[in-house]
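Ticket #4471: structure output looks truncated?

Reporter: J.K.
Steps to reproduce: submitted the chain below (113 residues) through the standard prediction queue, then opened the result file.
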Amino acid sequence: DLHFDFPLDLAADPSEYQDAAVTNLFYWCNIMHDVWYQYGFDEPAGNFQINNYGNGGAEFDHVLAEAQDGGGTNNANFATPDDGASGRMQMYLWFGGGEPEDLLTIDSPMGIA
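Returned output as attached by the reporter:
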């Protein structure tokens, strides 16, 4: 029914808000797909999408994005096979610790490099 408004309580166990986590990951994957497309990561460049609408490149190679993957913690990975094969993104559960200032923050573009 295209309902994507799921409850989110970050104080609860992550299993309690899995629908919200999956929706969030889907949203951000689509945003980044569109941003990278503008910078040239399009169909001929081997981007990930099911239908390339006749624009070149191999089709049926969407990203298999896994939210709250149980294979690890405090980490993530992305397998990038050749064009025509699906990429796999595993976003593990993250568990904070310590004070908020102990968390990674990026306050300038240099912080990304």
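Triage note (M.O.): checked the attachment and the full token line is present. The radius of gyration is 17 Å.
Status: closed, working as intended.
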